[in-house]
């Protein structure tokens, strides 16, 4: 029995109404979807930390999610795991005509990725998805989806010429947000905050930066520097609640200086 056959057999047993696991039997596509997203994030986290042993484990957890969904689909007569594997194999061959067909390869990765996007656009037309934004997944993290939406729109010319115009829009959105906050209209402020974040995602896209990656890096930096603050305060037997903003801000600057020196 191959490892994937073993995994599929385990999944079938878990989903067996007689003798299986009650929790697994109760699950649906909708209830499992959040776990699928969580496992994908844990894969990204292991990669970011450079923990290859953890990555192996997390990839297994993510694969299990695929097996789980495929098993539920098989029970409903929709498709089986082999159909999933064949679908991605067909897609990869179709989207790499320079490898599996007679098309010449592009000169570099960027040009080849552009060709990939052209092929995807052709696929959307064949599936009656004629809108430029039709298949940008709603379930993506909002920041990542914003960048993908602007990228897709840019492919048909709906884009600012340079980052200068994006910065102008960024300043405009900040001013509008400040105005709504000053007016005390929190509902409109929320909308303006969304507009501001959307422009930030667009700016990231213009700079070739993945906004989710950038924000994850900022989160990690914040955790690291705040941990420095806690460690320094702990030397005096104190925690942040026994400090004040001025002291903690000074320690934050010390953390930054320490990072630059290392």
UniProtKB/TrEMBL annotation:
EC number(s) per entry: 3.6.1.8
Enzyme class: hydrolase
Transmembrane spans: none
CDD domains in the cross-refs: NTP-PPase_MazG_Cterm, NTP-PPase_MazG_Nterm
Catalytic activity: ATP + H2O = AMP + diphosphate + H(+)
Superkingdom per UniProt: Bacteria
Region (Disordered): 237-262
Domain NTP pyrophosphohydrolase MazG-like: 27-100, 168-225
Record GO biological process: dATP catabolic process; dGTP catabolic process; dTTP catabolic process; dUTP catabolic process; response to stress; TTP catabolic process; UTP catabolic process
An example molecular function term from Gene Ontology annotations: ATP diphosphatase activity
Family affiliation: Belongs to the nucleoside triphosphate pyrophosphohydrolase family.
PANTHER family linked to this entry: NUCLEOSIDE TRIPHOSPHATE PYROPHOSPHOHYDROLASE (PTHR30522:SF0)
Protein known as: Nucleoside triphosphate pyrophosphohydrolase
Organism per entry: Brevundimonas alba
């Amino acid at each position: 029995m191959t490892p994937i056959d073993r995994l599929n057999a385990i999944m079938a047993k878990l989903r067996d109404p007689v003798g299986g696991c009650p929790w697994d039997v109760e699950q649906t596509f909708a209830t499992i979807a959040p776990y699928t997203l969580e496992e994908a994030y844990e894969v990204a986290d292991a990669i970011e930390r450079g923990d290859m042993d953890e990555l192996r484990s997390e990839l297994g957890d993510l694969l299990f999610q695929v097996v789980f969904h495929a098993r539920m689909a098989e029970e409903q007569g929709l498709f089986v795991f082999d159909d999933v594997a064949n679908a991605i194999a067909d897609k990869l061959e179709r989207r790499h005509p320079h490898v599996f067909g007679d098309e010449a390869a592009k000169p570099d990765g960027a040009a080849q990725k552009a060709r990939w996007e052209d092929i995807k656009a052709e696929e959307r037309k064949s599936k009656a998805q004629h809108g430029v934004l039709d298949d940008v997944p709603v379930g993506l993290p909002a920041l990542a989806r914003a960048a993908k939406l602007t990228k897709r729109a840019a492919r048909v010319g709906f884009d600012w010429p340079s980052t200068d115009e994006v910065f102008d829009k960024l300043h405009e959105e900040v001013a509008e947000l400040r105005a709504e906050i000053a007016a005390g209209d929190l509902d409109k402020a929320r909308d303006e905050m969304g507009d501001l974040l959307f422009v930030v995602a667009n700016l990231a896209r213009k700079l070739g930066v993945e906004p989710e990656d950038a924000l994850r890096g900022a989160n990690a930096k914040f955790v690291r520097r705040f941990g420095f603050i806690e460690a320094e305060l702990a030397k005096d037997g104190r925690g942040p609640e026994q400090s004040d903003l001025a002291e903690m801000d000074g320690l934050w600057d010390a953390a930054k200086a320490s990072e630059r020196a290392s």
